């Protein structure tokens, strides 16, 4: 099958992966390229109550200070599980390694090597990369499920568009489009609920204890994240039809902005990737469905189409069942037109 996708992993995926890698390799990297100094343990304090899952041990914060090459005193801290008598193995003075250009990146030398935490962090980054990998052709799981349900089915007529063809019937496409809309709302709120405990853990590790400062920081994050989520959800749930009236290339040379004319003289600007920027042209009639991020042309393009789930531009003359990048089924163009707002 001569089908390929012009898209990559979303920026947020790379951001999360790079943050995980940086966090996991901080100690080992500083051990090789970092500057050395001597840290003085300034405080050892217990935080929270006993942890039953860790044999009723407590979390302890070990804070320290050291003088860097710039002559300034910098601080840091580490967390360790220990019994109520306190952590052992920490002398009054401990070697520390730090990044000379940014001394706030530092770690005690004894904790700078590879350990189970490093392996777990790097493993999480690799898992995310694996889950978001590009899928080749129509052999993805969603495609196989659509094919198995559609074989011999009389639920509807097949798509007859002139773009990259799809094997889904119109009726199958309608059911999938409506189901995706419902599920996207559910997944968005589940993601919001899952992020909160992760942020709580990160702030707790940084602050070192459960206190009013931590709760205030968490409340601020929830308010900001909720506002962003509602704003993003509002954009995703918007459905419209428009005409491309202008294209403004990005100053960075990657993608650009589409200027769209909507009804009643309104305009909308949509920032898109390079493949989408090249795909749309002034004068194209386009539409966007509720629950999806990306628009599509009203009149099918010859040999190309957009995956409205991930924004990939798919090229291919042969029939295909799923987006090679995200694995989402490719619905019939007629089904999308049926759900689009009236002009």
Written description of the protein model:
The protein is an alpha+beta fold. Helix content is 37%, strand content 26%. The chain is elongated and about 75 Å long. Strand 5 and strand 6 form a beta hairpin. The two termini are 36 Å apart.
Produce a short descriptive summary.
The chain is of the alpha+beta class and 343 residues long. It has helices at 11-33, 116-131, 141-150, 170-207, 212-237, 274-279, 333-339; strands at 4-6, 35-51, 57-67, 73-82, 93-99, 102-108, 240-249, 256-261, 267-272, 285-288, 296-297, 304-306, 313-315.
Outline the fold blueprint.
Blueprint: E1 4-6, H1 11-33, E2 35-51, E3 57-67, E4 73-82, E5 93-99, E6 102-108, H2 116-131, H3 141-150, H4 170-207, H5 212-237, E7 240-249, E8 256-261, E9 267-272, H6 274-279, E10 285-288, E11 296-297, E12 304-306, E13 313-315, H7 333-339
């Amino acid at each position: 099958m001569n089908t390929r996708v012009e898209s990559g992993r979303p920026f947020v995926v790379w951001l999360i992966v790079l943050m995980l890698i940086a966090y996991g390799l901080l100690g080992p990297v500083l051990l090789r390229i970092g500057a050395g100094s001597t840290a003085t343990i300034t405080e050892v304090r217990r935080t929270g109550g006993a942890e039953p899952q860790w044999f009723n041990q407590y979390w302890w914060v070990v804070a320290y200070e050291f003088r860097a090459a710039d002559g300034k005193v910098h601080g840091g801290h580490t967390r360790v599980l220990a019994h109520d008598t306190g952590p052992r193995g920490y002398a009054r003075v401990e070697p520390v390694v730090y990044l000379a250009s940014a001394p706030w990146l530092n770690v005690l030398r004894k904790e700078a090597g590879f350990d189970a935490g490093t392996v777990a962090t790097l493993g999480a980054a690799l898992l995310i990369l694996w889950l978001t990998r590009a899928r080749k052709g129509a052999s993805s799981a969603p495609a196989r499920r659509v094919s198995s349900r559609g074989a011999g089915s009389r639920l509807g007529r097949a798509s007859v568009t002139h773009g990259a063809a799809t094997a889904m019937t119109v009726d199958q496409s309608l059911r999938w489009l409506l189901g995706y809309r419902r599920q996207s709302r559910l997944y968005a709120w589940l993601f919001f609920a899952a992020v909160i405990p992760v942020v709580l853990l990160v702030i707790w590790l940084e602050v070192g204890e459960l206190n009013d400062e931590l709760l205030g920081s968490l409340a601020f994050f929830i308010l900001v994240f909720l506002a962003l989520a509602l704003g993003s959800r509002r954009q995703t749930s918007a459905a419209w039809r428009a005409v491309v009236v202008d294209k403004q290339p990005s100053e960075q040379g990657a993608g650009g902005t589409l200027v769209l004319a909507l009804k009643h003289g309104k305009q909308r600007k949509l920032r898109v990737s390079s493949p989408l920027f090249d795909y749309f042209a002034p004068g194209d009639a386009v539409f966007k469905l509720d629950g999806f991020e990306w628009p599509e042309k009203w009149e099918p393009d010859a040999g190309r189409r957009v995956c409205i789930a991930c924004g990939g531009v798919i090229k291919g003359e042969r029939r295909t069942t799923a987006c090679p990048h995200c694995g989402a089924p490719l619905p019939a163009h007629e089904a999308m037109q049926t759900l689009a707002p009236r002009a």
